[in-house]
Design goal:
The protein is mainly alpha-helical. 94% of the residues lie in helices and 0% in strands. The two termini are 36 Å apart.
């Protein structure tokens, strides 16, 4: 959850930077903000996928543990 919150903050910061770049006509700042926003979203999605896989692995382990206990 902490990683997701951090990445949400980074996405927001990237959006602000992108918006300021557009506002002042600074294409480099605009591009940098957009890139930061995308990179943070990718990290967030990857972290969510990792958590989902770990949850699935734990579920399978629990199924086998129950079978072994019989």
């Amino acid at each position: 959850i902490l990683m997701s919150t951090e990445e949400k903050f980074n996405q927001a910061a990237g959006s602000v930077k992108e918006g300021v770049g557009k506002l002042i006509g600074d294409k480099e700042l605009e591009s940098e903000g957009a890139a930061e926003k995308v990179a943070s979203k990718v990290k967030e999605v990857a972290e969510d996928a990792k958590d989902a896989i770990e949850g699935a692995v734990e579920g399978v382990k629990n199924i086998f543990k129950k079978d072994d206990a019989k």
